[in-house]
Amino acid sequence: MSYKSDIEIAREASKRPIQEIGEKLGISSEHLLPYGHDKAKVSQDFINSVQGNKNGKLILVTAINPTPAGEGKTTTTVGLGDGLNRIGKRATVCIREASLGPNFGMKGGAAGGGYAQVVPMEDMNLHFTGDFHAITSAHSLLSAMIDNHIYWGNEQDIDVRRVVWRRVVDMNDRALRQINVSLGGVANGFPRETGYDITVASEVMAILCLARDLKDLEDRLGSMIVAYRRDKTPVFCRDIKAEGAMTVLLKDAMQPNLVQTLENNPAFVHGGPFANIAHGCNSVIATTTALKISDYVVTEAGFGADLGAEKFMNIKCRKAGLAPDCVVIVATVRAMKMNGGVAKANLGAENVEAVKKGCPNLGRHIENVKSFGVPVVVAINHFVTDTEAEIEAVKEYVAGHGAAAVLSRHWELGSEGSEPLARKVVEMAEAGNANFGPLYPDDMPLFQKIETIAKRIYRADEVLADQKIRDQLKSWEDQGYGNLPVCMAKTQYSFTTDPNRRGAPTGHSVPVREVRLSAGAGFVVVVCGEIMTMPGLPSRPAAETIRLNDAGQIEGLF
After folding, report:
1. For position 1, what pLDDT does the model report?
2. C-alpha angle 503/108/63, rounded to 5°?
3. Binding residue per annotation — 72?
4. Is the pLDDT of residue 108 over 80?
5. Distance from first CA to last CA of the chain, Å, rounded?
6. Residue 74 annotated as binding?
7. Pairing, β 266-269 against β 91-95
8. What integer pLDDT is reported at residue 109 of this predicted model?
9. 545: how many CB neighbours lie within 10 A of its CB?
10. Do 6-129+253-430 and 131-247 fold alike per CATH?
């Protein structure tokens, strides 16, 4: 039996005017700034007006470590949101915006799938409302002003060897990882080495997603460290006098984007920090606003729970004063088989033993999420090749870990298929058993925070870091940054720093290659193993098959 592609389904969507979607949440048309007929930004005035409301229930959707078999975290997030609306709850989905780099690389799109999608799918996966372009422009403005400051006399006495502010572009371009700038003689400035990160790794992106309002945004931008002087004291963005103009560029980008699911339920799509090299959650302003106007808010954290959920708990919840009422861990029978050693080409054949062999990866995530004091539900994202015996094997394994697993068929059936999952989530969330707490206290030393995550979440034996890194962390503590959380930049494919080690490995080490202080965002980035803050394109990028057809429709997004 053949199934329609995601983009074919999205094209057939019966979308409602965005004003009607806003009305479902009590947002009047005067507080919507439309981008066409099917998307709009929500005004800061409306956001301010609902701050006295009681919060709804917060549901986090996370997953096992991603595999080529596919897990469907965003699909499940959207499907669960539709399922909750189906059973009479006023539910809002909150997800991240898609980066152009992965869309043209391996991913091909990030708006859900099947009959659990957010639309307009093509817009969301391309330029959308221009938020990422605004972030790139604000970041680039600061880059230009730093080099301009040095050119015109260097009043701040910046050591050109210690400019730590890199450039960004929203594309996977490995050729830009390390570059030389200001070549060509006196007229072009002082030559120095720098490099590019992808826009979603920019501290500006992290700040936009953690800021409460424009004033908080400007203060955080001003607190970013961009360079060091010859006496090794930090130079802040505010010393370059760039934060005001940057805030102007980000004024509209700070407002959350409202769109809809295929079933015409509301969805906020806002912000998009990567989960392996940033904190991997949608914006605080979108999540907190949705909580004030919804019974339930379903949000996601990027990649597996060892990255996205850990950062959601330790960074986003800590910074925004949030606490999830229930966590959904997405798994698939196919991914369990792949973790059990089955090749991708053979995933269609029943193999109960391989499912059982691969389940420890899921078990590790269940244990980790429970350690934060929140109840857990496992969503088995259904594939048509799954057999009853394989599904039962997963359910039995999860039951042995003191949790429930629910089969969800939202990809195929939309909210009808996710209704059992929605009912289970409501049961867990309304039982009131959540007792959320972060993994470590604010006053724990920075290196000990790194060790805590490595040992308790990754199950590593040790963290490997040379004296230079340890001294840098101690220096930041002496400067008053010791109370910040840490943001681990690590491969998403494994609990280790080796992307090829599947399952639930133990007895490994976590090598720390570099640490970066994101003083404005309010965390320390810990770069582990071979992770890159500027990804590259694969040998056959998705961009090769993305094009306009004869009818002027986009093809190749999936």
Report:
1. 58
2. 30
3. yes
4. no
5. 19
6. yes
7. parallel
8. 67
9. 12
10. no
Q: Is 71 annotated as a binding residue?
A: yes
70 is known to lie in a ligand binding site: yes
- Whether the CB-CB separation of 147 and 183 falls below 8 Å is answered with no
Among 39, 96, 166, 409, the active-site one is: 96
Q: Which helix (H) or strand (E) covers residue 535, if one does? A: none
Token reading at 230:
């010859």
- Classified by CATH at the fold level, domain 446-527 comes out as Formyltetrahydrofolate synthetase; domain 3 (3.10.410)
383 a catalytic residue: yes
Say yes or no: domain 6-129+253-430 is CATH 3.40.50.300: yes
Please name the residue that has the structure tokens 């929605």. 422
pLDDT, tens only, 388-420: 999 999 999 999 999 999 999 999 999 999 999
Strand partners, 297: 58, 92
Catalytic residue chosen out of the listed positions 165, 383, 495, 523: 383
Catalytic residue among 274, 411, 447, 476: 411
Any catalytic annotation for residue 24?
no
DSSP 432-455: T------SS-TTS-HHHHHHHHHH
330-359 b/e (C-beta count within 10 Å ≥ 16 → b): bbbbbbbbbbbebeeeebeeebbebbbbbb
Residue at 131: amino acid letter: D
pLDDT at 329 over 90: yes
Domain boundaries, the chain: 6-129+253-430, 131-247, 446-527
CATH code of the domain made up of 131-247 = 3.30.1510.10
Closest CA relative to residue 163, chosen from 175, 176, 151: 151
Gap between the Cα atoms of 510 and 501, Å rounded: 13
Q: Is 226 left (phi over 0), alpha (psi -120 to 50) or beta?
A: alpha
Q: What's the mean pLDDT in 525-554? A: 91
Active site residue 275: yes
Q: What is the dihedral of CA 419, 422, 423, 429, to 10 degrees?
A: 180
Residue 67 burial (10 A CB sphere; 0-12, 13-18, 19+): buried
CB within 8 Å of 204: residues ≥ 6 apart: 135, 138, 139, 142, 221, 224, 246, 250
For the question of residue 411 being annotated catalytic, the response is: yes
User: Are the beta carbons of 245 and 237 closer than 8 angstroms?
Assistant: no
Per-residue pLDDT at 10 exceeds 90: no
Q: Which residue is catalytic, options 40, 46, 63, 75?
A: 75
Maximum separation of any 2 CA atoms in the chain, in Å = 72
Identify the active-site residue in 46, 274, 303, 312: 303
Q: Give the DSSP H/E element, type plus range, for residue 210.
A: helix 203-210
